[in-house]
Amino acid sequence: MQQQPIYILGIESSCDDTSAAVLCNNKVLANVVASQEVHRRFGGVVPELASRSHQANIIPVIHEALNKAKITKKMLNAIAFTRGPGLLGSLLVGTSFAKGLSESLQVPLLDVHHMQAHILAHFIENSNELNNMPSTPAFPFICLTVSGGHTQLVKVNSPYSFEILGETLDDAAGEAFDKAAKMLGLPYPGGPMIDKFAKAGNPTAFEFPHPQIHNLDFSFSGLKTSILYFLQKRQKENPTFVKENLHDLCASIQYTIVRVLIDKLEKASKLTKIRDIALAGGVSANSGLRQAVVSAGKKNQWHVFIPKLEYCTDNAAMIAMAGYFKYLKRDFASFDVAASARIDMDISNSAQ
Fold first, then answer.
1. What is the spatial distance between Cα 257 and Cα 202, in angstroms, rounded to a whole number?
2. Fold (CATH) for 7-125+311-347
3. Across the strands, what pairs with 246?
4. Which of 4, 221, 292, 293 lies 20 to 30 Å from 268 when distance is taken between CA atoms?
């Protein structure tokens, strides 16, 4: 029996990327992202500027997505949007627009948890980069979600049930990458710059301590401090130390952060006896992490699922995918739903 086409418009505005996507069931018809270059000169995202840029970008981005998908807005079955977590001003732009469009079209409204959406991106058709694997992970699976604001090990029991096995106690891995890059004098965004320079460096040139957290939680604040003290000491001895050793420093820092992530992932797999392993979140675009997960998969006989780069960073296709699952469950949001800068995974109706 042929599946009835369900068209979902996804809207993502949690940080500094304005994105709109159209999915027909789990197939992407359009995924448009407008990035905000204005933040580069400030060395980080400025919330007020981000929300203003979302206001300017949201209508053109949605218009382009509908045109690329070759559908009209009247063909949409529902509107999905990022409720949180994220920057409140940015979230309010997407939330308000989604509500208005939903009401004008008289179609359901679907509120989406941003981190759940990163995980559920694995169910977008042809989203897996590893072609020799099944297209989607089997439930239950473990997902390592790594972004600028979050680092979590999540046991995914179904599209509606998520169990956090471990998470960061302080800084997220993406934040550790960005702050280390700033210490090295690299421009914003720093994480991708570390990845770029690490490719030509020796990952064992410099040794940094691994945080000793005995359960499945993470900690990166101590590592960040040790990098700072190490650089201060070496630069006092040699003012050009960073410039002379930039590639090795980037490779060593990246190796240390990735090793922490992989060690916890291996521990989680061993404890749960789950061998379907997925990677998600903005930092999943890091080439060192992707290669390490693949290598660990071969060693541990995992089924590894790594999203294509377009579904790693913030994008509306993942929001629409998460919205599609909610649509199938008829888990619609009311019009009094509010954007939330901080929202736990179990607050968004997913575990019910």
1. 15
2. Nucleotidyltransferase; domain 5 (3.30.420)
3. none
4. 221
Half-sphere exposure in the Cβ direction for 15 (13 Å, CA): 18
- The residue whose two tokens read 């410039």 is 243
For the full predicted model, state whether its pTM sits above 0.90: yes
pLDDT in tens, 240-284: 999 999 999 999 999 999 999 999 999 999 999 999 999 999 999
Nearest C-alpha neighbor of 118 from the set 96, 146, 87, 140: 146
Question: Which CATH architecture best describes the domain 141-306?
Answer: 2-Layer Sandwich (3.30)
- The sheet that has 78-84: what strands, in order across it? 27-35, 17-24, 7-12, 78-84, 109-113
Residues 36 and 55: beta-carbon distance below 8 Å: no
Q: Where are the domains of the chain?
A: 7-125+311-347, 141-306
- Token pair belonging to 120: 């559920």
183: number of Cβ within 10 Å: 18
